[in-house]
Amino acid sequence: MSGRLPTLRLRRTFTVRWLETMACVQVPASHTEWLPLLRLAAEQARRQQPITPEDVARKLLPLSVAGARTWLEQAVRHGMLTAIGTPTAPAYTLSALGQATAPLGHSTEAKHGLFRCAVTDEPLLAGMGVLQLEERREASAGALTPLTESLVHAPGSCGQSLLQPDGPFVVTRTADVARELPARQALTLELELSPDHTGPFRLRIFSERKDGKGEKPGVDARLTSPLQRRADQTYGDLLALVLSAQAAPRELSAGLSVPFAALPTEARLNFRLRHPKTFTAHLRVPGQFDLGVFEVEPIEVSLVPRPEDVDAWGLWLQVRALGGERTPAAAAKAGEAARQKIPTYRPRALHELAAALAQQPASGPSDGSRAALLEAYDLLLWEDAP
Question: Three-state SS across 314-351?
Fold first, then answer.
């Protein structure tokens, strides 16, 4: 597949709700006494080695090995390290929270108290739990209700505040009840699909910045969706779904607005496919996946064969242009006509055409593929022009 097919940017809005509950959390702190330990753990991690009490006793402090082990276990309780060794051979590595805070020059600390948590039902964020964490001094008005959704992070994971990019945190435990606050916030989710990207979906979450008094600050965060991308959710499949959307306004660069099936094969080589306006597309295949409805940004694609398809298409075009006049001059004229449509094609002399026709009577793409023309799935045979 060509790496020069269009990058698709699909957007939709989603709502953030706020819950207030008692919780135990681990957050960044400015306790500088922990920084040498975190730097040593990070240095060991770069060497793909854990940190041990012996490392601490030898490199950091004039402590006994037993004292160093006590210090390391205290770092585990604060959420900076994870114990991976055995009682007789203790060893430790940076936790997910420690990895996030160490480059910031912070340590972490455990807190217990009242917190306000931002949550959402957006499917592509399912599994992230809390999008924002804010400590509160006084409880808000409103009745407590049972907490029906888990806000606790899975072991080995940590959250990232959307409004504070340098504010990672971990929720370790919450109360069984919470207040759902009336204030809600609408954000925009952007899903980026590019031909050269595989793996989890890349997301951007943002909102318009408002500077008025009492307005929430703007959001602009990039992250990876916790929703695992299935093998059948390839760029090609999703591109086909987007371009086959009934709401897609299809136009060609010559100003035509006609179905692709109405164009002859030759005409497709001269036009640029355009979706000049934003349109909606539902990325769903029954029984396989349903990513929901998105607004799709305008798309523009030049219709040029991939390098490996140039010879077959050019040969077919030259044979079509040659017609019944089988002379060297006619072959040269037909070859130039094919080269004008596909500049990288090498025209064939008459004897080469005769040999090609003898070996492959169809002279290139089959009648079936020509009849299909340039519907969405055919775009995978083409790429953007230079």
Answer: HHHHHHHHHCCCCCHHHHHHHHHHHHHHCCCCCCCCHH
- In the DSSP assignment, the letter for residue 139 is P
User: b/e string for 142-181 if b means 16 or more Cβ within 10 A?
Assistant: eeeeebeeebebeeeebbbbbbeeebbbbbeebeeebbbe
In order, the DSSP letters of 88-103 are SS--EEE-HHHHHHGG
Q: What phi and psi, each to the nearest 5 degrees, are found at residue 347?
A: -60, 150
Question: How is residue 302 written in tokens?
Answer: 């030049």
CA gap 126, 122 in Å, rounded: 6
Q: Yes or no: say if 108 and 78 are a contact pair by the CB < 8 Å rule.
A: yes
From residue 114, how far is each of 141, 174, 178, 326 by CA, in Å?
Answer: 13, 10, 10, 87
Nearest to 14 by CA among 173, 86, 85, 120: 120
Phi, psi of 335 (to 5 degrees): -65, -40
Distance, in Å, from the CA atom of 192 to the CA atom of 237, rounded to the nearest integer, reads 14
Q: From residue 165, give the alpha-carbon distance in Å to each of 27, 123, 176, 244, 246.
A: 13, 22, 29, 38, 39
> Which residue would you say has higher pLDDT here, 190 or 3?
190
293-329: pLDDT as tens digits:
999 988 776 666 667 777 877 887 788 788 777 889 9
Nearest residue to 381 (alpha-carbon basis) of 326, 280, 301: 301
Q: Quick one: three-class SS letters along 141-200?
A: CCCCEECCCCCCCCCCCCEECCCCCCCEEEEEEECCEEEECCCCEEEEEEEEECCCCCCC
